[in-house]
């Protein structure tokens, strides 16, 4: 097993996570309210089987891997990370924040306004601070999507307050 | 000749102008989505989903199917021209497609990939027509126990065929099944894993899970590409067609790769990527001139392209006839059908023949439309490759959010969407396949219901799962599919040993 020294993977960690998820899920499954009719354990039965399988597969994965590979993998990802990797991670973080804000404001400000804000934020993240181009794309997107959904497809989206558009 | 009657009825539905328009729309959209690096048919169908909510089931399904096989046509365009596969199924097209373009044969490459796609797709539709009704009729014999086992088989096959390793495939599957248990239990009315959140009582919508993984997750992964500079595709072409010699070389490989692709596509979990890679390797082995492969051999482009289109048609078999989607894309289509109140499965062909046969007939017409779109208009289409990803990705995200909102009008789904987007990104990092999880989320609910029905019939005994011959056969298939990689390893080791002993 010489080449084992070079392997890097997150299997050990994945196995641990699986076992933990399995145990938590198992405890939650066991604590599901008992069914008033039929077999009282019926609603927990299938989840309990899933919990058991998850723990078993997690243990298999732990046994098949070793802690060192995972340690190496973390080290490698730290050392090998290029400026580009870090940049894309920052973009992902920024996108998640923008999405959360979008979720918070959507029903308050209405679809059109919130979406213009969200798209502006997203385009600034990916395209940089090109305000004119970004605003045009953001406005067109939210206007066209709103028109298609509301008027052509008849799917209601949150309306803009005061003007009821 | 009942089948022909159904087919003609289906054709009558498919040629209605509105449906023709949708087939073209879906196909062209699919071609474009397929061409764009990082975006495959699953993302395309996921983003398109909300548009179908207001359509009839037939219209919704033919549009989404158009996107699916359209993406198979389109995927190879970017493989050939910029050496970047539009999706996994187009990976094999880079091996010889890009060298062909480098050798100044871009026209032949674009033409043969579209021709192979067309032939592969069309022949597969014939297979689908012949097989659909018998499979559906056979599936009607399944009781709850067999149906449960069938889902176990499908999920195990998906897990064992997933890239990376099988154990992680199973972990992904079980996690998906866990997600499916969230919400009020249909049989007892007891809420499970809702943590007091009102919106979770109806469960986590699998469409949101899919959009999260395929739209958000894929865009997250693709962010890296924004900085990596863009490759500029060739946009001026001569006549896009092939020579007689090229046709002589490729027609047999195309015909051979089609059934292969169809079968692989029909198996749960295998799909277009595996089909095209298998077809490529197969032709490479059969070829007298296998050294030419990888250097612009036209056969190496034609075979995988026929196979991946055949696979996309084959994937409809389990979804339509058994109600078990075999790929991420068909899973989304099944989700859309369920949303419109139609349950795919053995009864689909008797209860909604218009939907089933309308779809099948639309695929015949769709293949002709796409051949026209992809050959004479290829030069026009590839201009889409010039759309900068930095504009494109925000648009995909915007569509993902509006689609999610349209599903249930709930903000809570936004948070679930974001969570699964992040999860999709990290699953890729630690190399856990997402496909098994998606299939599990979709069949999870039905699977548990069948399990409980079966145990109730048998008064709590588990013996019912091994009683009928069909059940035994399904268990056997499951065991083989799980043990297959191990068996293969042992066999190859034995061969190596005897080989080295002789040497």
From TrEMBL, chain A:
**Per the UniProt record, which residue ranges are transmembrane?**
12-32, 44-67, 136-157
- Sequence ranges assigned to domain DUF1468 in this UniProt record: 14-158
Question: At the top level of its lineage, which domain of life is listed?
Answer: Bacteria
* InterPro entries reported for this sequence: DUF1468
Q: Which UniProt keywords apply?
A: Membrane, Transmembrane, Transmembrane helix
Give yes or no: UniProt keyword Phosphoprotein. Answer: no
Q: What is this protein called?
A: Tripartite tricarboxylate transporter TctB family protein
Automatic annotation (TrEMBL), chain B:
Taxonomic superkingdom: Bacteria
All residue ranges annotated as the DUF112 domain in the record: 20-439
- In its keyword annotation, does this UniProt entry include Membrane? yes
Q: Tell me where the transmembrane regions lie.
A: 45-71, 109-132, 138-159, 166-184, 204-223, 322-343, 355-382, 394-427, 470-487
Ordered alphabetically, the record's keywords are: Membrane, Transmembrane, Transmembrane helix
Q: InterPro entries per the record?
A: DUF112_TM (IPR002823)
Q: Which protein are we looking at?
A: Tripartite tricarboxylate transporter permease
